[in-house]
Design a protein that fits this description.
about 110 residues; two-stranded antiparallel ribbon
């Protein structure tokens, strides 16, 4: 079953759970989308907290899984809010600076 929202988004609902058991491709699509939605929700909440706290650098995505999850969202930018994209990009830039501080200062020297 499906319907189209006012903004043009198509919403699909499964008629029966058995479809997922017997249709591996559909199961993979649902799992992938579920993982994306979970990650987008997590990172959006972190971005909102960062903004509420005056863009406190200590609230940026930590290196490792949080930052990896955020950077994966950038592969689907058209489905992510601009403020979340900005948050992820700043988090990634700060992480790069932390891991290569001398390269950062060398870049400043060139400017």
């Amino acid at each position: 079953m499906s319907q189209r929202l006012a903004d043009g988004t198509v919403v699909v609902a499964l008629a029966h759970e058995a479809l997922l058991q017997h249709w591996p491709r559909l199961r993979d699509i649902v799992r992938e989308h579920r993982d994306f939605l979970r990650a987008r929700g997590n990172v959006t909440a972190e971005a909102a907290l960062w903004q509420r706290e005056g863009e406190d650098p200590s609230r940026l995505l930590a290196e490792g899984n949080p930052l990896a999850e955020g950077t994966q969202l950038l592969l689907r930018r058209d489905e992510v809010a601009p403020e979340v994209i900005r948050f992820v990009e700043i988090s990634a830039a700060v992480a790069r600076k932390r891991s290569h501080p001398l390269a950062f200062y060398a870049l400043l020297d060139l400017i």
